[in-house]
Write a structure and sequence with these properties.
SH3 type barrels, five-stranded antiparallel sheet, single chain, 5 strands, alpha+beta, globular, WYL domain-containing protein
Length: about 110
């Protein structure tokens, strides 16, 4: 796991910064997306719970949604000057599915 990418990702979470994420899709296509970083945690849906980067993909079609990526799929994370509002994204109960990366997001922490 690339520690530099993980530190950039965690920094973006703490600062509530939107990231420009470059990654390789499962179809082996390179994608660049504007995303809100949510967590680096085991996937709850996967049969084998490997750690994944979980992001809110603002650019996905037909509407924004969560994308979960394996660490080896990530090429680059660039912090943008834009901030995001967690309360506009997080609609689930974070007490039932707590964050792996500690953050100060008020009631969503």
């Amino acid at each position: 796991m690339d520690k530099k990418l993980l530190f950039s990702f965690a920094d973006a979470i703490h600062r509530k910064k939107i990231i420009q994420l470059t990654y390789i899709t499962k179809e082996l296509q390179q994608q660049e997306r504007k995303c809100a970083p949510l967590d680096m945690a085991p996937s709850r849906r996967a049969k084998i719970p490997f750690y994944k980067y979980h992001v809110w993909d603002f650019d996905s079609q037909p509407k924004p949604h969560i994308v979960s990526l394996n660490p080896e799929q990530i090429i680059q994370i660039e912090l943008l000057d834009e901030e995001f509002k967690p309360e506009d994204i997080v609609t689930w109960d974070t007490t039932k599915s707590p964050w792996s990366i500690v953050r100060d997001w008020g009631r969503l922490s």
